[in-house]
Amino acid sequence: MSQVCRGFPPTSTIRRSLHLCMAAGLVLSAPVAAGPLADATKTEQLFAKRSTDPYTLAVRATVWGYPLVRAAQLRQKATQPDNPFASRPQTVATAALNRLGRARQLADPDTRIGVAPNNDTLYVLAFLDTEDGPFLLDTPDFGARYYTFQFGEADSSTHHSYGQSSHGHKLPPIFIVGPAYRGAAPEGALMVRSDQRYLMVAGRILVARAEDLPVVHQLEDRIALSKWLGPDRLGPTTVSRQRILAGAGADVPEALKPLADLGTVLQDWRPTPEESQLLQSFEAIGLTRQDGFNLGRLNTSQRAAVEAGIVDGLKIIRAKTRNLGAMANGWSTSYSGSTFGKDYLLRAAVAMDQIYVVDKDEALYPVAHVDSVGASLDGRTAYTICFAKSDLPPVNAFWSITLYYAKGFLVPNSLKRYSIGDRTPGIAYGKNGSLKLYVQNDDPGAGKTANWLPAPKEGFMLMMRLYRPKASAMTGQWHPPAIKRTVASSTTTDACSAQ
User: Is 333 found in the same domain as 314?
Assistant: First the structure.
């Protein structure tokens, strides 16, 4: 989904819980010297040995807990627990807890529910409290149209995704249960079991062109979420109460809000055996599943160490977002998809910039922050991206490149074009079948506007989406081409040579 931090203006009760969306340097009001783990780049460096050191434990709690808090922030921003039935913009698919929300327009620069929203599909979204279930999700026949339904866990990972690639044009009913459910699924239904109390359901339905919207709206309207009451018995879902993240409280020091929020999440958490050992170690810094975060357990020196650990933990996560896996031509691609195992740092980095990506079989997300010479992308420079005919993105569904401000928002522009790809109206291929894209602030003119992806006059990032990628993309045999600075000679032709 990749969209709460940097999102909608938060509701009143959670307005103050955006600290994890800030750059790490903004967490404390005064600069703090980097600690011994500040340059760590791998999970093993952070979690290799047992420790009772407050700084180390704070780094670990920040890295391990960041995705849990981001997921909880997204849930609370989407469901608005203090005003669950408030009206929502048409570009977001949010609704009250245990209810379906349906976006009616593609994401635009006013879409502020999370980070890096796609501009290819309409979302159908629900956040479920599985203690209020079981639930039954019914979907229509989508025909030849691309669709997928993702079931995202409370730690931002995804173990279940079903759609066109798995079931063709029609899904069976989806029976959604929590970790405590011990019964069977109704006959003919597909069971999805959540590891935790809360689960996100995110449907994506392709909008190939603006004229598609009425058809997609009809499909959305035929998606139904019900409470399962027994064989052949369905009822309406209920809207239950949620724990408001503790970081929203005015009495929580800004520097410690990340741990306060994590403490709230942990009170509903069902840890694995390995997590139980880790959580037990966090008790030394005042963090428990029973009581959340207790600042009173820290003396002055411990508090200073914990604050430094939070800052460094966020810096470590931010640095990891620049290298999510394989680097090629300035693009960083994670081939782990939406399952992270024990790689807590990768999980946190993906949650920071791309929370709730789908399974790698469903989509890959190469991300670029730099050009072909390693310089940060900036709209005061013009760039081209050249695909040879033999090197176009290898997909079984479709592909796109979306441009965002560095903070993950879509960029306003005169064309109202926020992404470009194989469905862009009028996109022009060269005589040799190649494709040259222009990424810059000014219209490239001379018949090149159809291939222009407008950029702001400041830093930005690019995210490519490969929906249903072919084997060459999934194995790393294919890589996106380099993002090259424009020189005079490069504007004389619309053709690209073989890469």
Answer: no
